[in-house]
Design brief:
The complex is a heterodimer of chains A (about 500) and B (about 60). With about 500 residues, chain A is of the alpha+beta class. Chain A is about 40% helix and about 15% strand. In chain A, strands 6-7-8-1-10-15 form a six-stranded antiparallel sheet. Chain A has a four-stranded mixed sheet with strand order 3-18-19-20, with helices on one face. Chain A is globular, with a radius of gyration of 22 Å. Chain B is an all-alpha fold and about 60 residues long. Chain B contains four helices and no strands. Chain B has helices spanning about 1-10, 10-25, 25-45, 50-55. The longest helix of chain B is centred in the middle third of the chain and has 21 residues, at about 25-45. The chains are: A alpha+beta (about 500), B mainly alpha (about 60). Chains A and B meet through strand 2, helix 7, helix 8, helix 9 and helix 10 of A and helix 1, helix 2, helix 3 and helix 4 of B.
């Protein structure tokens, strides 16, 4: 049965240290985060981390996990987020959110935190140096870094069932999740402009890897919650979105799809004959006319397959309801937005300018091509592509478009500013964030599903948080009002 | 937040907007073009210099 779609996004940002002869990205990332967190630093607790566990039911033994992460700087923020260095990139993991709109706010707050970090890092650098970050997924030279989504999923659903539905889902949802890219990489040949930043980098259908031979469906089995009840679906195939509409739709529609899988509501098999090739094929056609071949026979465009999923989702809303998908109101908005987006893509993708990243970027590039008579291989277009994702408010072309009124926003900036320090009230992130805000000195370590408090007397107290929807404002706000010390809090929790 | 999103939305409205655009007198089309030119000029002023070198120098270590 569908469990509430608690969700979050992890973003590895591109990072450059300008004006330095030896630009070490790990060092630059560390400086960025240290400059931001300064004194309010609380460490991450790795006890329950097991990135080598596979959802298909086995763990790699005798050998190191496929990736050994080097965690240098690793902090937890008062908004419940994790901010750290991973694979030579600064990475920001949003706190757990209860619906797609909340996650739009949390994800945007991450951009603002990176922006603030860049400013703060200036005092650690010489005047001619600058650390710059980009919210994108590729350097245009074959090196990719990820934006991962996470969704809470019912453990009883066989993983193979998830895979069967997720492959066609991920191949086709690119038409609204793509962030757009000039050119092709990783052996894709000559491409002028494509829908997705990431599609060129996927080489397998299913697997545990995230850095090599990337699979469309990632099998990492690390629930960060009660493992008897839950999975955490770790989605590595998405792009980093700046457009709020794109993030909202990406998360909201995927949440509904997952709920339908859990409730066994999808009665057809949409399996694609060659998903890896189809992923690229769809991305490489900004007209959205390319068809993919289905295992059951016949061919279909990505937009038409998305219509099939949407029709099912509308029926699901009528028959079952959208309570598990972030609630009827928000998920209802997702359905409306989804329908309008598919209708727009069908009519003319350009109608989605200012709503979807790949279309918004393409419009900008087209305007330049027309004005300056540029060919697709002109370096200026590659620069525009890169600088669209620049996170500095003064340099970000995306932000320019927002200020010019060309991009639709879904959330208030005030809420985004607030989310830089305040946790979402609706998940366990609230408990984590409030503990850090109230008693940072007593929080010895924290991770997604527990928190370790030093209450002043031995031993340290570990507070498990295995239920992502416990520890919310409604549950524990009064505890924080009533307790004046962490020891009191622990005593109250135990009673 | 939620309320605002609801107000902005509906699909039919989008269609209406598009029709209006189609029927827009040429004057408005010119105005849109002017606005776009201004925007591109503004973007020109913040674009990094020497596009070719700049793009070439942006090299990342692969991540996840």
């Amino acid at each position: 049965m569908a469990v509430p779609k608690v969700c979050g996004i992890e973003t590895e940002y591109g990072v450059a240290l300008r004006g330095a002869a030896d630009a070490n990205p790990v060092l630059a990332s560390s400086m960025l985060i240290n400059a931001y967190v300064e004194h309010r630093k609380v460490g991450w607790d790795f006890e329950d981390e097991s990135p080598g566990r596979d959802a298909r039911g086995f763990a790699r033994e005798g050998a190191a996990p496929p990736e050994i992460e080097t965690h240098l700087v690793n902090t937890v923020l008062t908004n419940g987020a994790r901010y750290y260095v991973d694979h030579a990139h600064p990475e920001y993991s949003t706190p757990e959110c209860a619906n797609a709109l909340e996650l739009v706010v949390a994800d945007k707050a991450g951009e603002r935190i990176l922006g603030r970090s860049m400013q703060a890092s200036r005092r650690l650098l010489t005047p001619e140096q600058e650390i710059v970050v980009y919210k994108n997924n590729t350097d245009g030279k074959g090196n990719s870094y990820g934006t991962h989504e996470n969704y809470l999923v019912d453990r009883t659903v066989p993983f193979a069932t998830l895979v069967r539905h997720l492959l066609p889902w991920f191949v086709t949802r690119q038409v609204f999740t793509g962030a757009g890219k000039v050119g092709g990489e990783n052996g894709s040949g000559k491409i002028e402009y494509q829908i997705s930043q990431r599609a060129d980098f996927f080489e397998e259908e299913v697997g545990l890897e995230t850095t090599l031979k990337r699979p469309i469906v990632n099998t990492r089995d690390e629930p960060h919650a009660d493992p008897q009840k839950y999975r955490r679906l770790h989605v590595i195939v998405g792009d980093a979105n700046l457009c709020e509409v794109a993030t909202f739709l990406k998360v909201g529609s995927t949440a509904i799809l997952l709920a339908m899988i859990e409730d066994d509501f999808i009665d057809k098999d949409y399996s694609i004959a060659t998903p890896v090739a189809a992923l690229r094929g769809v991305s490489h056609d900004p007209t959205c006319r390319t068809t993919v071949e289905l295992v059951d026979g016949g061919t279909i465009t990505a937009v038409d397959l998305q219509w099939e999923f949407l029709r099912l989702a509308q029926k699901y809303a009528d028959d079952v309801g959208l309570e598990a998908c972030g609630g009827d109101e928000i998920a209802g908005q997702v359905l409306e937005r989804w329908e309008a987006t598919l209708a727009g893509l069908e009519r003319d993708p350009r109608t989605l300018d200012g709503k979807l990243d790949w279309v918004t970027k393409q419009s900008l590039l087209d305007a330049y091509r027309e004005r300056d008579g540029l060919e697709w291989d002109d370096p200026k277009l590659a620069l525009l592509d890169l600088q669209y994702h620049d996170v500095r408010p003064g340099r970000s072309l995306y932000e320019r478009l927002v200020r010019a009124g060309k991009v639709e926003r879904l959330v208030e900036e005030e809420d985004v500013t607030n989310a830089m320090t305040e946790p979402p009230p609706t998940t366990r992130a609230y408990f984590r964030g409030r503990c850090l805000a109230e008693w940072a000195d007593a929080v010895v370590a924290a991770n997604w599903d527990s928190l370790i408090l030093d209450v002043g007397s031995d031993p340290l107290r570990r507070i498990p948080m295995m239920e992502p929807l416990r520890g919310t404002q409604a549950h524990v706000a009064s505890l924080f009002e009533e307790c004046t010390t962490p020891a009191e809090l622990v005593a109250r929790l135990a009673s | 937040m939620a309320e605002r999103e609801r107000k902005q939305r509906p699909a039919p409205k989008e269609r209406v907007e598009e029709e209006v655009e189609d029927l827009a007198p040429p004057k408005q089309g010119e105005k849109i073009k002017e606005e776009l030119d201004d925007l591109l000029d503004e973007i020109d002023s913040v674009l990094e210099e020497n596009a070719e070198d700049f793009v070439k120098s942006y090299v990342q270590k692969g991540g996840q």
